[in-house]
């Protein structure tokens, strides 16, 4: 009984959020991973993605459908984002 309640709660939570998973390609530090989870209904609140690897750090706006727009880039060179999954 407890297991079924737990599994139902997990199922409900996964349907209330959307996650975006990325490989991030940096011309200065190579490839690393980044991810972001957000509520499906976030009332239009801005969503952001941040990442740091070695000497590279960035922040970006994240639009519906996991669309990335880089806002700050410190030590990353050129950044390319490859979406590798969603839930």
Automatic annotation (TrEMBL):
Question: Superkingdom, according to UniProt?
Answer: Eukaryota
Q: Does the keyword Signal apply?
A: yes
What are the alphabetically sorted keywords of the record? Signal
> What is the scientific name of the source organism?
Botrytis elliptica
Q: What is this protein called?
A: Uncharacterized protein
| Signal peptide residues on this chain, from the entry's feature table | 1-19
